[in-house]
Amino acid sequence: KQEVTQIPAALSVPEGENLVLNCSFTDSAIYNLQWFRQDPGKGLTSLLLIQSSQREQTSGRLNASLDKSSGRSTLYIAASQPGDSATYLCAVSIGGFKTIFGAGTRLFVKA
Amino acid sequence: EAGVAQSPRYKIIEKRQSVAFWCNPISGHATLYWYQQILGQGPKLLIQFQNNGVVDDSQLPKDRFSAERLKGVDSTLKIQPAKLEDSAVYLCASSSTQGVRTDTQYFGPGTRLTVL
């Protein structure tokens, strides 16, 4: 059974700091991995999608890596800003089109 | 391009009552998902449609939950009767699925259900 774990559960950093969010999954047979952002009271916004054949994806200040063999992904946020404060979720797509989410990391960036 | 629309945004009901949620996916998206997100947890997939057909409903409590997707476009999720533990945010998402890989999922704003 695929399980997705995100560490840490919560993180508070000062503005301008570079940070890394971690995601681990138990079964390496995945089709892709997505990172989402969720603001309070709102739906999820897709940030980056990494296909199983890829190692990383970049968008602006965000960089996501994928290591299938070790069952890990990281989301790197450069020069964090207060507007980055949100919950970040990772999700893996497995056989049968099923998507399994982690519980998320709540990020707070202090001005 | 219009996003995924959901209604209502909020709903408060008594236990044992029934409730229905509506979702309109992004135009042209073949795949539609319903997720349940309990406070402090990640979304849990309830049911997934590919066009009109159900791809996965293994985590849908079928004794009380039902869902349909008419003409491969809009979808409704119903709970009857509701229990206290059904209090959650119900998220609808859609994607343009190609082959065996899933593409980016686009989420609606969700419906926050409170069961008293």
What do these coordinates show?
With 111 residues, chain A is mainly beta. Helix content of chain A is 0%, strand content 58%. Chain A is built from no helices and 11 strands. In chain A, strands 2, 4, 5, 9, 10 and 11 form a 6-stranded mixed β-sheet that branches. In chain A, strands 1-3-8-7-6 form a 5-stranded antiparallel β-sheet, with no helix packed on it. Chain B is mainly β. Helices cover 0% and strands 48% of the residues of chain B. Chain B has no helices and 11 strands. In chain B, strand 7 and strand 8 form a beta hairpin. Chains A and B meet through strand 4, strand 5, strand 9 and strand 10 of A and strand 4, strand 5 and strand 10 of B.
Radius of gyration of chain A: 13 Å
Identify the quaternary structure here: heterodimer
Query: Judging from the principal axes of the Cα atoms, what is the shape of chain A?
Result: globular
Percent of residues in helices of chain A: under 10%
State the helix count of chain A: 0
- Give the helix tally of chain B: 0
